Amino acid sequence: MVYHWYIAVLIVSYLLGSLSFGTVISRANGVNIFDGGSGSSGATNVQRMVGKRAGRTVFILDFLKGFAPTLLLLKFYPMGNIPSERLAMTCLLGILVGHSLSIFHHFRGGKGIASMMGGLLSIMPSSFAIGILVWLVIFHATRIVSVASLCFSTSVMLTAYLFYAPEYIIFALLLNLIVFWRHRENIARLINGTEHRFM
């Protein structure tokens, strides 16, 4: 019966993650976000294609998409014999998969960085805090969002060794693998010297 809770959380989280704020806000502004820029429905591409206000709105909503449900599970998990941290981790993984491969948008989506940040704030706040500092430093040095995001996820994986138990380290490794997989096209453009910069 215990595993039923994990399966239920994973399914609900995937569906929640599949809700694409970037797609909705872009369409409200007359833009099909999948047809322009990087083809991603994340905040960065929305800002590039629609504007700063839309991009920031999408970032905040995607951040909350990761933060709110994981925090609720940590505070009000359904069964006392199941570690709330594991349910929250399962929830964030489901959200990221749904955000990247949305069932409502032909399995297209965003990179998941904002939602990952939101979930990490509630699950691994120490790694989140260091990761945000890394993101800001790298972004201001390079003006390349993908580089900052890759460094963010890598820093979370590395700092997990300093602050958290082994299950958190495995969780951080899975997150890092998802981020690198979602950024595989960005990595190819970085190698070719054609990656987008924010000026």
Kindly list the characteristics that best describe this protein:
single chain, mainly alpha, globular, 199 residues, 10 helices, 2 domains
Task: Characterize the structure shown.
The chain is an all-alpha fold and 199 residues long. It folds into two domains: 1-111, no CATH class; 124-199, no CATH class. 74% of the residues lie in helices and 0% in strands. It has ten helices and no strands. The chain starts with a helix and ends in a 7-residue tail after the last helix.
Q: How does the helix and strand content classify structurally?
A: mainly alpha
Tell the overall outline.
globular
Number of helices: 10
Tell me the radius of gyration: 16 Å
H-E string: HHHHHHHHHH
Mean pLDDT: 91
Write down how many β-strands occur, each being a DSSP E stretch of 2 or more residues. Answer: 0
Please tell me the total number of domains: 2
Query: What proportion strand?
Result: under 5%
Largest sheet: none
- Report the helical percentage: over 70%
Span between termini: 53 Å
Low-confidence stretches: none
Outline of the structure:
The chain has helices spanning 2-18, 21-28, 43-49, 52-76, 84-100, 113-123, 125-142, 145-163, 166-182, 184-192. By secondary structure, it is an all-alpha fold. It starts with a helix and ends in a 7-residue tail after the last helix.
Give the helices and strands, then pairings.
Elements: H1 2-18, H2 21-28, H3 43-49, H4 52-76, H5 84-100, H6 113-123, H7 125-142, H8 145-163, H9 166-182, H10 184-192
